[in-house]
Design a protein that fits this description.
The structure holds 3 protein chains of 3 kinds.
Chain A: E1 5-6, E2 12-13, E3 16-27, E4 30-41, E5 45-49, H1 56-63, E6 71-76, E7 79-80, H2 86-91, E8 94-96, H3 109-115, H4 125-130, H5 134-152, H6 168-181, E9 186-190, H7 198-215, E10 218-222, H8 226-232, E11 235-240, E12 243-248, H9 250-254, H10 257-264
Parallel strand pairs in A: 5-10, 5-11, 8-9, 9-10
Antiparallel strand pairs in A: 1-2, 3-4, 3-6, 6-7, 11-12
Helix pairs in contact in A: 3-6, 5-6
Chain B: H1 13-16, H2 23-43, H3 46-72, H4 80-97, H5 103-122, H6 130-150, E1 163-164, E2 169-170, E3 173-174, H7 182-205, H8 207-217, H9 219-224, H10 229-256, E4 258-259, H11 261-264, H12 267-280, H13 285-309, H14 314-335, H15 339-353
Antiparallel strand pairs in B: 1-4, 2-3
Chain C: H1 3-36, H2 43-59, H3 65-72, H4 85-106, H5 116-138, H6 155-165, H7 173-195, H8 197-207, H9 209-214, H10 219-245, H11 250-265, H12 270-290, H13 292-295, H14 303-314
Helix pairs in contact in C: 1-7, 1-8, 1-10, 1-11, 1-12, 2-4, 2-5, 2-10, 2-11, 4-10, 7-8, 7-10, 11-12, 11-14, 12-14
Classes of the chains: A alpha/beta, B mainly alpha, C mainly alpha.
Chain lengths: 269, 358, 328
């Protein structure tokens, strides 16, 4: 395993942190993902792109443990990851956002962000029932972490608002806050810019870059906006109809004929 | 004007997350507590205790328990009657097997036993959701009632199949049986209610509460971000059943004194407590109090109105009770599905601004 | 043939008959659930109300007589006429349609797009309301219902089976009639659902209220239709059960028995309701027959639920229900 490299603008990219080896995913007769392999390096921003229905969200679901691949292995930190439940995957330091927002609509923004801290909060039932002492101290300590994230993403003014009432763009930001609150080693973003206008995209891009810069978080993101992908990512994986058709830096991928065909829809005869 | 937050700044997170952030609320809460503990015992009498106050206190505990399961964790349960029965029968067996142990211990242990039973019947919730879970809890309801009816060990082989609470005292004063003074039974139940409410408040404001609500709102996302669904659901069943068991134990030993399981803990009981939770407000401790007060008070009010004031025969009044309760449930669900608690919140929000309109 | 086996056969046949009646009640649930996503807890009380109204009309009872007498000190009870069964049934169907309209107008319309648990709670409220109304209108004492259906042990079967097995099966005529009626109803409903315009509209509404609205389907009409059909099914069930055991409160508890049937058969399947009903009917009778005496009897109180529960753990959507697919 190589030890990584330094990018043109001085960022440190480390060794391989996650590796998908020959992943195949079938639902009954439908092959959603066919024999795809790629890796993600520590500290990089890895984009996964491709037309709709290519299997990108399914790949993310495999990484978070929600789907079990029909064939193939997931390697995390140089060791094969045994089959585990999604919450165990979360405990390993993988957090994500969702394509169709999956916030907890019955809770406030602050509470949603605090749910991101659940993997770190250890007080037992009895301690919580008593509250004073251990449980309260832990709650306050974790609240401080949550508030830092809230400051970072500039959503302080809505912290007590029930999320159901928020506009779409803010909901996406709260979802990002919840994922960040877990202090993840690997952050998965499923179409974080979907449905946003130019300004909102610029804000979100800035946040993503800041997260990678300040916290050194490895980021894998699915995105449709080519401009965003080219600007933000270090490397890109291109999927189409469940197969991998491109893998490399944005420039390499941009000039790949297969990728161009897939996006422009060349007829296959 | 009176009810405001202006000038009341919180400087620590601990202050910000207290139960009653507004000073007015805090003072009101202490006043109510003082009144309940220090004034009511001197003015209570047998009639009011039995007609209104004891059932309110006891059902409030059950409602808090069910609210944790249904309102906070989103697991619909129709087995409340059966679980109250577990609490009652556990209490009975404990009382008759260990006559010298304090009633406090018996009631708490009865709750603990019910918690274990609750975990058992909660296991299907890992595979079954929503409606289907509700029907599965019916299996618990019917099975438990059948069990306590048919297995004579539970009612100490008595010929009638009924269980009755033998006389016991606490700190020298009778607490069960017909001669127990009203203020004593009242205080006993009040202590349990206060402690249960405090525990519920503490659990729901911390990580347990958030785990539960996450499962309720979107269980798949909850698991993906790190909530262990098995642990969350089973703790909800356990805590909920603990409270419901205590409620059942008190219902039997302190309030009724003797029960026949088919009458006292039937599915009608399950619905009654569920209505309290729905009308009071899902996911709200205050709502549990409000719902219990409403559904205990309404029949009494209707009876006083119909029988005592208007002079109608009792069966007509009871038919009308059904009509009104049913109608009110529908009305509440249409107008304010979040129950009395939400109505209360909206009132408080208006009060915060009063006398300004916005 | 050993005696136990013969008895078991008789028990099975009785179980099948009971199962048909369960299925009949379950049908009403499936209809409403298919069209509106609501589990109508009030279905059982609707059967009670229908039966009581039928008896009330047939006997010429004055509605609300008890209350009128209490308030005004009068002594009216009956109009003095008797309405023939067939006409009374038609009138009762009319009442049920009126009820369906009222439910649609005052309850359903205001609860569009609410979560399923809220809708379910509303139907429980409706059940309480309707029960109180039934009692207030017609009085809560047990009533005898006789619309001229054949009752009593069927002699033909008794003699034939005696000839075969040396033991005559006791099969009630009423149960036979119920089976035939239920079978006809099921076929009619399936045809309606699959092949008529209204049936198609029903399926559209069941899928997505708003989408159905957007293609011009009148939700209110469909709901009145559905609740009327459910009301009709409730009436038939009420007649069957009422003739068998008298019209009384316990009729409404039949609804609860339908729940395990639906769990087994899936909430959205008409054939599932039938198969589920038969399985539950036979299952609980056989269980009580074989293991009941060992366990103290009366296992029918809970067996159906436990059976359904065990079943659900292995197949959460029931036998015929649509597989629940969860996506993120």
């Amino acid at each position: 395993m190589d030890e990584g490299y330094i990018t043109a603008d001085g960022r440190q990219i480390g060794g391989v942190v996650m590796e998908m080896k020959n992943i195949t995913l079938r639902f009954g007769g439908v092959v959603a993902i066919e024999n795809i392999s790629f890796d993600i390096r520590e500290g990089e921003i890895r984009a996964i792109i491709g037309p709709n229905g290519a299997g990108k969200s399914s790949m993310l679901n495999i990484i978070s443990g929600f789907y079990v691949p029909s064939e193939g292995e997931v390697w995390f930190h140089g060791a094969k990851r045994p089959q585990m439940r999604p919450y165990e995957v979360a405990r390993q330091g993988i957090a994500r956002t969702f394509q169709n927002i999956a916030l907890f609509e019955g809770m406030s923004v602050l509470d949603n962000v605090m749910t991101g801290r659940l993997t770190q909060m250890k007080s037992g039932l009895l301690a919580q029932a008593l509250w004073k002492g251990k449980a309260e101290a832990e709650e306050t300590a974790n609240r401080e972490v949550a508030e830092k994230i809230i400051d970072f993403l500039e959503i302080q003014s809505i912290r007590k608002t029930p999320v159901g009432r928020l506009p779409y763009g803010l909901k996406k930001r709260v979802e990002l806050a919840r994922a960040l609150a877990a202090e993840p080693k690997l952050l998965l973003l499923d179409e974080p810019m979907a449905g946003m206008n130019v300004e909102e995209k610029e804000d979100m891009s800035r946040f993503i870059l800041d997260v990678n810069d300040e916290f050194g978080t490895t980021i894998a993101l699915i995105e449709h906006d080519m401009g965003v992908v080219m600007d933000l990512s270090d490397r890109v994986v291109v999927m189409d109809y469940g197969k991998k058709i491109g893998d490399g830096t944005p420039d390499e991928v941009r000039n790949n004929q297969d990728v161009i065909d897939a996006y422009l829809g060349v007829s296959h005869d | 004007m009176f009810y405001r937050e202006a000038g009341d700044f919180k400087t620590t997170y601990t202050q910000d997350s207290q139960t009653f952030p507004i000073k007015f609320d805090r003072i009101r809460y202490y006043l109510v507590l003082a009144f309940a503990f220090l004034v009511v015992p001197f003015i209570i009498n047998d009639y009011w205790a039995n007609a209104l106050i004891l059932p309110f206190l006891i059902y409030a505990i059950a409602a808090i328990g069910l609210n944790i399961l249904v309102g906070y964790c989103g697991q619909l349960s129709l087995g409340t009657g059966g679980f109250m029965a577990v609490g009652a029968y556990a209490c009975y067996k404990l009382m008759t097997s260990f006559p010298d142990v304090s009633m406090f211990i018996h009631v708490i242990l009865a709750g603990a036993i019910t918690a274990v039973v609750g975990i058992l019947f909660g296991l299907p919730s890992l595979r079954i959701k929503g409606f289907y879970l509700a029907v599965a809890t019916l299996a618990a309801q019917f099975f438990l009632v059948w069990l306590f009816n048919r297995v004579p060990w539970f009612y100490n082989y008595s010929a009638s199949g009924q269980i009755s609470a033998p006389e016991r005292d606490t700190f020298g004063i009778l607490i069960t049986g017909p001669n127990a003074p009203a203020w004593m039974t009242y205080l006993f139940c009040l202590i349990f209610l206060t402690v249960c409410a405090l525990i519920a408040r503490n659990l729901t404001r911390g990580s347990s509460g958030r785990s539960w609500m996450a499962i309720r709102d979107m269980d798949i996302a909850a698991e993906i971000i790190g909530v262990n669904p098995l642990k969350a659901k089973l703790t909800a069943f356990a805590v909920s059943s603990f409270f419901v068991g205590i409620s059942g134990a008190l219902f039997f030993s302190i309030y009724l004194g003797a029960v026949e399981v088919g009458e006292a803990f039937s599915i009608q009981k399950s619905f009654l407590v569920l209505f309290m939770v729905i009308i009071g407000g899902l996911g709200s401790i205050f709502g549990s109090f409000a719902g219990a007060a409403f559904l205990v008070g309404l029949p009494v009010a209707l009876k006083v109105l119909g029988v005592d004031i208007l002079g109608w025969p009792t069966d007509i009044v009871s038919h009308i009770q059904l009509i009104i309760v049913g109608g009110l449930i529908i009305m509440f669900l249409i107008l304010e599905p979040h129950g009395l608690a939400q109505l209360w919140n909206l009132t408080k929000e208006k009060l915060r601004l009063w006398p300004f309109p916005h | 043939m050993p005696d136990q086996l013969i008895y078991a056969m008789e028990v099975t046949l009785n179980g099948l008959m009971a199962g048909v009646l369960y299925a009949l009640v379950a049908l009403g649930f499936v209809l409403i659930f298919k069209a509106s996503g609501i589990f109508n807890y009030a279905q059982g009380v609707m059967a009670l109300f229908a039966a009581m109204t039928l008896v009330g009309i047939m006997d010429g009872q004055v509605p609300f007589s008890h209350m009128i007498n209490a308030i005004f000190g009068t002594q009216v009870h009956h109009f003095g006429w008797h309405v023939p069964a067939l006409l009374a049934i038609l009138l009762t169907v009319g009442v049920m349609v009126l009820l369906a309209w009222a439910v649609q107008q005052f309850v359903m319309r205001h609860l569009v797009n609410q979560e399923p648990i809220i809708l379910f709670m509303a139907t429980i409220g409706l059940a309480y309301f309707l029960e109180g109304l039934s009692d207030l209108m017609w009085g809560s004492e047990i009533k005898k219902l006789d619309v001229g259906l054949p009752q009593g042990i069927n002699d033909a079967i008794d003699q034939v089976t005696f000839g075969w097995f040396g033991y005559g099966f006791f099969i009630d005529n009423l149960d036979l009639v119920a089976t035939v009626v239920a079978a006809l109803l099921v076929i009619a409903l399936m045809v309606f659902n699959q092949y008529t315009k209204e049936g198609r509209a029903l399926r559209a509404v069941a899928d997505d209220h708003q989408a159905a609205l957007s293609v011009g389907i009148s939700l209110s009409f469909i709901w009145v239709l559905v609740w009327s059909v459910a009301g009709f099914v409730a009436l038939v069930a009420g007649i069957m059960w009422g003739t068998k055991s008298g019209v009384q409160f316990s009729l409404s508890l039949i609804a609860l028995k339908a729940l395990p049937v639906l769990m087994l058969g899936g909430f959205t399947s008409i054939p599932g309701a039938i198969v589920g009903g038969l399985i539950i009917g036979v299952g609980e009778k056989l269980f009580e027959f074989s293991l009941g005496p060992m366990l103290g009897g009366a296992t029918e109180n809970w067996f159906a639920y436990v059976l359904a529960l065990v079943f659900l753990v292995f197949r959460p959507q029931g036998l015929f229900g649509e597989k629940i697919i969860e996506r993120v």
